[in-house]
């Protein structure tokens, strides 16, 4: 009886000590070294990669990304834009491009080009829905119907698609590639962070506190990723009346109420500018809230292109984008 109990307990004990059947010698077993995360690398043939980011959607990130990229491209700098917003690709609309990209001899996607800017987007790769399934727009029967196909992918699919967009596009030599990021800090951002060496990030915020809070979170993300934050852009900073040119700050700029009642202009506020100062981030400039910025974007001729030409010197909208672009160029060492 006693032997049996002892045996039993020995057995139990052994089971516990050696649950994985490892050798019981004094030296610990050696494990084959697991490969860690994929190493960060540069995108082939691309000198500088700049991410345009915001933590919120709808603050004008794609509008700013495409206008910045076009500012570079129109100055003869070899530029591309990669739309990494897999669930809401906007670059095809903004550049008035569609159709399936061709593959080169290495099975890499060939970017689509408009206005001298190369582009790649998930929007080009998704199958177009048959016309019978799409909902025509009754007010604009001539316009291409909007796509009703939902894109609902799990993390793994997102990562796979991102992988292809990051590594299998034949950009040809580029001086700079802009990444239009989706909002937030999700799978796409993580994949980019793990796989790509970014030269800098531009953070877009609107003046309101609620957007700014998220922008600050986005700043934290890049800081943790060791990506230099080039600065913050304040979009929809003010509304310039097309009739009289008067500037109205539609969104709260974080000004104290009594400052308003004293009629102070309030050039300085504790919103975006103060936050930039607190974080040690450069303020790159204001983009006005202007119906033409939106109209031009919708019709696929972004401001920087739409207002190019004879009177471009008078276009405050175009100048706003170009000024930000110039600052960004200088910060990453691109000759302007
Ligand atoms: N400065 C601006 N003035 C007027 N409309 C703007 C401005 N910036 C963006 N928009 C409009 O706001 C909407 C959202 O912009 P978008 O660039 O798609 O945002 P995000 O990429 O951050 O989701 C679009 O209709 C765009 O045309
Ligand atoms: Mg967007």
From TrEMBL:
Keyword Iron-sulfur part of the UniProt annotation: yes
InterPro entries attached to this UniProt entry: Mrp/NBP35_ATP-bd, NUBPL-like, P-loop_NTPase, YlxH/NBP35
Signal peptide: none
KW NAD (keyword) present: no
Record's keyword terms, sorted: ATP-binding, Iron, Iron-sulfur, Metal-binding, Nucleotide-binding
HAMAP family hit by this protein: Mrp_NBP35
Family per record: Belongs to the Mrp/NBP35 ATP-binding proteins family.
Protein name: Iron-sulfur protein IND1
Protein source organism: Aspergillus cavernicola
């Amino acid at each position: 009886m006693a032997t049996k109990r002892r045996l039993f307990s020995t057995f139990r004990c052994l089971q516990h000590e050696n649950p994985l059947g490892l050798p019981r010698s004094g030296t610990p077993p050696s494990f084959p070294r697991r490969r860690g995360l994929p190493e960060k690398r540069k995108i082939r043939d691309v000198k500088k990669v700049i991410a345009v980011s915001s933590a919120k959607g709808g603050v004008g990130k794609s509008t700013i990304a495409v206008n910045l990229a076009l500012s570079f491209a129109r100055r003869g700098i070899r530029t591309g834009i990669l739309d990494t917003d897999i669930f809401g690709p906007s670059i095809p609309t903004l550049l008035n491009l569609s159709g399936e990209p061709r593959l080169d001899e290495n099975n890499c996607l060939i970017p689509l080009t408009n206005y001298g800017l190369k582009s790649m987007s998930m929007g080009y790769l998704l199958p177009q829905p048959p016309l019978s399934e799409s909902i025509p727009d009754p007010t604009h029967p001539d316009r291409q119907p909007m796509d009703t196909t939902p894109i609902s992918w799990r993390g793994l699919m997102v990562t796979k698609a991102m992988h292809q967009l990051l590594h299998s596009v034949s950009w040809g030599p580029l001086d700079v590639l802009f990444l239009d990021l989706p909002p937030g800090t999700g799978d796409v951002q993580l994949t980019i962070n793990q796989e790509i060496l970014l030269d800098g990030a531009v953070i877009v915020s609107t003046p309101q506190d609620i957007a700014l809070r998220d922008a600050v979170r986005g700043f934290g993300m890049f800081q943790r990723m060791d990506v230099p934050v080039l600065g913050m852009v304040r979009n929809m900073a003010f509304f310039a009346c097309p009739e009289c040119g008067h500037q109205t700050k539609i969104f709260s700029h974080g000004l104290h109420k009594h400052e308003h009642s004293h009629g102070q202009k309030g050039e300085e506020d504790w919103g975006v500018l103060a936050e930039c100062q607190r974080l040690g981030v450069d303020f790159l400039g204001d983009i006005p809230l202007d119906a033409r910025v939106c109209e031009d974007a919708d019709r696929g001729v972004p401001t920087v292109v739409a207002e190019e030409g004879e009177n471009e010197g008078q276009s405050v909208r175009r100048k706003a984008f170009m000024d930000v672009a110039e600052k960004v160029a200088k910060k990453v060492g691109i000759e302007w």
